[in-house]
Request: fold
Amino acid sequence: MKQFWIIVFQVLISAASAQAATPVYVDEKSQVCIIDSSNFQEWNPVNRMSYPPTSKFFRNRSIDHAAWYTFKITNTSRTALEWYLVSYNYSIDEIDLTTVSDAGQTEEFQFRDTTSIYNRIIKHKQPVFKVSLKANETKTYYLRLKNESTYNYVFALYSHENFSSHFFIEYIEFGIFYGFLFFVLVYSLIYYALLREKGVLFYCLFIFSQLIFMLFRDGNGLFLFPSYPEHADLIKNISRACLSVTMLLYTTYFLKISPKRKLFKAIVVIMVLRVLYAAFMLNDTTEYTYHIEFGIILLCIYLSVRSYRDNADTRYMVVGLVLLGVSYMIYYQSIIITRSYSSFGFFALYYGVAAECIFMTLALTERFKRLRIESFKQVQMNKELETMVEKRTEMIAIQNKLLEERSNELNLFLYSVSHDLKGPLKTIEGLCNIGSHTSTTNHEEIFDLIKRKLKNLESNISDLNVVTKLKNEALPKVLIDFDSIREEMEDRFQFYEGFDVISIVYRNNLVRPYYADLFSIRCIYQNIFENALKYRDVKKNSEIKISINEVGDRIELKISDNGMGISEAIMPKIFEMFYRGNEKSKDDTGLGLFIVNLAVERLNGTISVVSTEHVGTAFTIVLPFETDK
Reply:
């Protein structure tokens, strides 16, 4: 190996005079000098000949052979200068630099990129060579490249001061960028822990792939694996493939593209082809990867714009992908089209990735917020539904109870009706049999009994009609004239037994007009008035007091007597259907007070009774005051 280098150096020294490229001129005011085709020539160490360059920048044309280049650097200043020759390509298998001074002295610098970065001359992510020049000195440099990638290689000269400041600032910028990307990754993982959605998982994988790819794109990933720089390209290409696939997965899932659609199947085919390409091109030596990446970004932009109207969450995603597409277009133009390798083109992708992460995270946040709102609405809806179900269940239970009560009431009603109707009919039938088979019968007495039973029967039917009418018919509200009702009742009961000896005290204190259901008011007045007549105490001077008063927004109708009164034992039952409280009421229908209570309920009022046996009874009916129909 040493003999090989001795021969190479001898060849280089003997051929130094053959170089004709324009030197790179440096001085104290120079900052950065890019070495391109105007400064170097291709070199053949076998025939010791130099040739014009066939590409703008250095190029490793064959992965099996090394490429040789030669260039000159001239210090035009009056002082000695120290510069750094920096490779923009950080991952190179073999790179050697040989120096020949004007005086013919040979200086050798040998560098192998497979060496740990901590063993380099300068602990830097990219290969760096020190270039020392005396005042007005020119040196010839011979560069040897060999790598598995045949892509362009760019070299630049940095002054000592500019090298320190430039890369210090660059490391700070990279630190901010990767810190932000790491924060987005942690933020997304928190979202995934909360939502447990595949889409969020795909986004986390996308950010992680982005992080790894960018680290090994700019060489900062070498600080993670300082002893294995030869694996940098492999990691970069695998992470680049994962980045493309996870971007497609996240976009497809976020936009809810149905697996049944042809578009979804086409996306799956693209992902499979991308994985196969990565598998066969682990150490990528072509420019097709840039075309594929650009095409996938454009596809994701198209899908997000296409779904914008159907999914409001995509508005941030559209902005993020468009910004990424614009930045990648600038980068693509710099690397592929113009091959200028400008700093603006290189760092444009970083700005695009940062902007894309911001807006795609906003899209994720918007989606999370919408899902939380929908979840909250769903919870509220479920609570409302539960409340409605509970209310409906409660209403159904109440209705079932009412139906059961009404059923029992109807059964009792039918039983009592049939009994009360059959009783007078059987009595009439028996009287008819007596009158037709017994010659000594007093027919006038029999006819009187029949007429009384028919009257009872008529009273039963009349009361049943009243009950039916109160329960089922909707009656209009009219202006109530209590004075007319009083005259009507006294005229109706003037022939009632004992009516002529009863003292009636009537006071109507109403001032405002009162509207109500006239039929219900009559039922209340008539039945209480009739009971006062019927159950008077013959041993007393009977008296009935009737008063009608306004009490706030209500009407109070009070009817009291000094009759037989009601005992405490039967007081709770007096409003029940068909209830007869004593022997004197055995021929009644038992519906009088039931009708009163039903009419009061129909008018949304209340009824109360105070009674003392052998002293008297007072009914108080309170009804809502309505001055309009």
Q: What stands out?
A: The first helix runs from residue 2 to 14. The first strand starts at residue 24 and ends at 26.
